[in-house]
Amino acid sequence: MKNLLQQFLQDETGATAIEYGLIVAVLSLAIVGGVGRAADALQWLFSDNNSRLANAFAQH
């Protein structure tokens, strides 16, 4: 039983997969947050009636 417990504590076969999973989770949260901020910025850019961009697209 002691030998089995020592083998279990020294086993690191799943550590790499867990690390990659954590990296993917953090990156996906950063991407989702960045896309949300970019969408808010674009909405603000086109929401002003006096905006040159809004007027340029409205004329074409």
Tell me briefly what this model is:
The chain is mainly alpha-helical and 60 residues long.
Q: Could you please describe the fold and organization of this structure?
A:
It is a single chain. This protein is mainly alpha-helical and 60 residues long. The protein has one domain (1-59). It is built from three helices and no strands. The chain is rod-shaped and about 80 Å long. It comes from Mesorhizobium tamadayense. This is Flp family type IVb pilin. Keywords: Membrane, Transmembrane, Transmembrane helix. InterPro entries: Flp_Fap. The chain crosses the membrane at residues 20-39.
Shape: rod-shaped
Mean model confidence by pLDDT: 82
Roughly how many Å apart are the termini? 78 Å
Proportion of strand residues: under 5%
**Continuous helix count:** 3
Q: What is Rg?
A: 25 Å
Assembly type: single chain
Helix content class = over 70%
Tally of strands = 0
> Strand-and-helix sequence, N→C?
HHH
Structural class designation: mainly alpha
Runs in which pLDDT lies below 50 for 5 or more consecutive residues are none
Biggest sheet: strands, sense, closure?
Answer: none
What is the count of structural domains? Answer: 1
Index terms:
transmembrane helix, Flp family type IVb pilin, single chain, mainly alpha, transmembrane, rod-shaped
Which helices and strands appear, and what pairs or packs with what?
Elements: H1 2-10, H2 15-47, H3 52-59
